[in-house]
Amino acid sequence: MAPYESDDSTTGATGTTAGEADDLRSGRRTAARYVVPVAVVGVAAATIGLVPALASSGDPDLPKITAQQLIDKIAQSHVEQLSGTVKITTDLGLPDLGGLESGLLSGATGSPGDGSSADPSAKLTELASGTHTLRVATDGPDRQKLSLLESAAEYSVIHDGKDVWGYDSKSNEVYHSTADDSAAKGDSREEPPVQATPKGLTEEALKSVDATTSVTVDGTMQVAGRDAYKLLVKPKQSGSTVGTISVAVDAKTGLPLKFTLTPAGGGAAVVDAGFTRISFAKPVASTFDFTPPKGAKVTEGDDHGQGRENKKSRDGSAKGDKGDKGAQGLEGFPGLSGLAGSEGSGDSKVIGEGWTSIAAFDSGGKSGLPTGSADGAAGAAGDLGGFLGSLGDKVTGKFGSGTVFSTRLVNALITDNGKVYVGAVTKGALVKAADADH
């Protein structure tokens, strides 16, 4: 299907001007490819018992559509040109550690230990909590920009052909890598992150749609001045921490405009990301231009996404030493990459299916959390272990004993013999899985 024709409509009274597009240039380029794999349609069609849940009520008044037709519409959406503003609020229920949680999340996602503050895999962990404003722009699969707007500062990810740039204005640091080689090999680690956009979040959610899922159309709504259908996704299984996922789908283009994930425990949404302004006009070419500022520290990424510092101020040609390989991610569990530990840890596996799937692996240590010691580094490890232990709940079972660390969505059980169980499931489900794995 050919790309959808550009549309000048926006949420404001006027279309996007050249000045607005220039303003977008200072924001971060979206990494979103705005295409859901067609395979999703086949999976959904084969596994969901869809009844004609029709969007026959609500405002605006749109033609009736079934859930399957709406999933097809998302999959067939080929919006290649857009710009806009996205507001994202994330409430995982993480404790307030004075910024330490960002560092912990950065480490968990496998970012380089000596890394740059401009490395997207580290910087965008800030989206794991609080409310943030993003500016996005895309012009086809090879040109995107996503910008995280901060007080008196800005962070941008720019993808332009082979080059992927990350720039942190606060520290004046730049991270550079290439996307083409790794993408050709099926490796997305050098591609800009996409999960922060409604499209990226929806794509991840639809990967979980199977026979354990209820999918319906729940009326219509307006988002950023656009008429949209509301797709509702719910787990059928008990034990999942996911309550409902609501996606506002643009009635004309099929592009997800808003994504909301509500936990099974109730309360505020865990993730709420939606466009507040959007235009389908072609962004000006200069939106995707980037040249490292004079004096900026530039870190070059190798083919595994690890960083090496460019010791020169910047001419683009200096090279540094490659970093050590980072921890391998857990495929199929977005946001949990790196939790399997470094080389030498046990193989990971998946226990269960659908929305109650649990990733299980051996951390490589045989004593669970770090324990106390007399002095030195071991003593520091013991202090850390005691601190981390105070944040979790002690549990016991046939597997022995361990500690469960909980958020409003993802929970993890670390047993005293070093095994780890992680999933968007309840504490009881983790203990049950550990018992069965004993």
Verbal overview:
The chain has helices at residues 18-24, 39-47, 67-75, 100-108, 120-123, 180-184, 198-206, 376-391, 427-436, and strands at residues 81-91, 129-139, 143-150, 153-160, 163-168, 173-178, 213-223, 226-235, 242-250, 256-263, 271-279, 297-301, 307-310, 349-351, 358-362, 393-397, 400-406, 411-415, 419-423. The protein is of the alpha+beta class and 438 residues long. The protein has two domains: 18-288, outer membrane lipoprotein receptor (LolB), chain A; 349-436, no CATH class. Helix 2 packs antiparallel against helix 3 (67-75). The model is unreliable at 1-58, 97-113, 181-192, 303-345 and 371-384 (pLDDT under 50).
| Strand fraction | 25-35%
Which of globular, elongated, flat, extended, rod-shaped describes the shape? globular
Helix content: 10-25%
> How many beta-strand runs?
19
Shape-level CATH architecture of the largest domain = Clam
In CATH, the homologous superfamily of the largest domain goes by the name Lipoprotein localisation LolA/LolB/LppX
Number of separate structural domains: 2
The CATH topology annotation of the largest domain reads as outer membrane lipoprotein receptor (LolB), chain A
Query: How does the major sheet shape up?
Result: 13 strands, mixed
The residue ranges in which pLDDT falls below 50 over 5 or more consecutive positions are 1-58, 97-113, 181-192, 303-345, 371-384
Secondary structure category: alpha+beta
Q: Output the CATH class name of the largest domain.
A: Mainly Beta
Summarize the helix and strand pattern as letters.
HHHEHHEEEEEHHEEEEEEEEEHEEEEH
Summed up, the helix count is: 9
Mean pLDDT: 73
Radius of gyration: 22 Å
- Order of strands, widest sheet: 7-8-9-10-11-1-2-3-4-5-6-12-13
Task: State the end-to-end distance.
Answer: 51 Å
